[in-house]
């Protein structure tokens, strides 16, 4: 203003600015330097003790530091801009709940890529066993990861098999079985036996008498099929569970399909 008579007529330099010279008017003040903030009454643009604080930025002309927004943080003082949130951290925006720099550690069961404003749960087929991970790991073979946010894979149960990235165990198909946990494949049904169901932990039973089950993976015991079991050849007999026909002894005959010689 004009017409001032006393020192008391002068007013403090406005907040966000500094006044380095005597006799300055309000239109000639200077903006506070980037990386600093200036309360009212500052005479320098980089005032000691007023560096921009952690978790904030001061782009210039700041009366107070500005909090970093979502996906950003600042782990250094005196900065003019915020940084992108680092992998393994998430930055929801500076608050009383965050660390001083505005970040939080990604929890186990979640992933936090660069610039994450919030953690993302690992999807089925993946897991994260430790905190601070930028990405989820593949569920290992022999295990399955069924739910979102898993921290420990589950072992594949008997009767099933699990490949890498499995979200659920797969049943052993017809003609196979698996008695063990944490398997990546199933066993073919043993020769002389049949496996007629899904998810078996043991063969269902022995091949029916009069049939021969020479190949592994036999499905049924009483259905003629070259790949599943076929009638015993003439001149031979096949007891229950036969994988190799037995020649009829002298003095007997076997017309074919015999369980015992006649």
Distance between the termini: 130 Å
The chain-level mean pLDDT equals 88
The Rg value, from CA coordinates, equals 39 Å
Helix content: under 10%
Order of helices and strands: EEEEEEEEEEEEEEEEEEEEEEEE
Question: What multimeric state do the chains show?
Answer: single chain
- What is the number of beta strands? 24
Strand content: 15-25%
* Helix-strand category: mainly beta
Query: Helix count, per DSSP?
Result: 0
Main beta sheet: strand number and arrangement?
A: 2 strands, antiparallel
Spans of at least 5 consecutive residues with low confidence:
219-227
Q: How would the global form be characterised? A: rod-shaped
Describe this entry's structure for a reader.
β3 and β4 (66-67) form a beta hairpin. By secondary structure, the protein is mostly beta strands. The N and C termini lie far apart (130 Å). The protein has strands at residues 17-18, 30-31, 56-57, 66-67, 72-73, 83-84, 89-90, 104-105, 110-111, 120-121, 126-127, 137-138, 143-144, 154-155, 160-161, 170-171, 176-177, 187-188, 193-194, 205-206, 211-212, 230-231, 236-237, 246-247. The strands form 12 sheets. Strands 1-2 form a two-stranded antiparallel ribbon. The protein has a two-stranded antiparallel sheet with strand order 3-4. 0% of the residues lie in helices and 18% in strands. The model is unreliable at 219-227 (pLDDT under 50).
């Amino acid at each position: 203003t004009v017409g001032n008579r006393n020192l008391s007529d002068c007013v403090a330099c406005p907040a966000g600015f500094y006044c380095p010279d005597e006799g300055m008017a309000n239109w000639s003040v200077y903006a506070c330097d980037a990386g600093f903030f200036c309360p009212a009454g500052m005479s320098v643009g980089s005032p000691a003790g007023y560096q921009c604080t952690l978790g904030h930025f001061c782009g210039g002309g700041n009366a107070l530091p500005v909090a970093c927004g979502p996906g950003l943080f600042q782990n250094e003082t005196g900065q003019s801009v915020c940084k992108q949130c680092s992998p393994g951290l998430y930055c929801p925006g500076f608050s009383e709940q965050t660390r001083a720099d505005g970040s939080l550690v990604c929890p186990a069961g979640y992933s936090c890529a660069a610039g994450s404003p919030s953690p993302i749960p690992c999807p089925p087929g993946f897991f994260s066993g430790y905190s601070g991970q930028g990405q989820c790991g593949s569920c290992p073979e022999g295990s399955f990861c069924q739910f979102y946010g898993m921290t420990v894979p589950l072992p594949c149960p008997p009767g099933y098999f699990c490949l890498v990235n499995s979200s659920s165990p797969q049943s052993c198909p017809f003609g196979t079985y698996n008695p063990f946990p944490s398997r990546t494949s199933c066993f073919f049904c043993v020769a002389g036996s049949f496996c007629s169901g899904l998810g078996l932990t043991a063969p269902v039973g022995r091949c029916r008498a009069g049939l021969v089950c020479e190949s592994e993976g036999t499905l049924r015991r009483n259905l003629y099929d070259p790949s599943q079991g076929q009638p015993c050849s003439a001149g031979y007999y096949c007891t229950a569970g036969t994988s190799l026909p037995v020649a009829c002894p002298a003095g007997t005959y076997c017309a074919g399909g015999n369980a015992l010689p006649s």
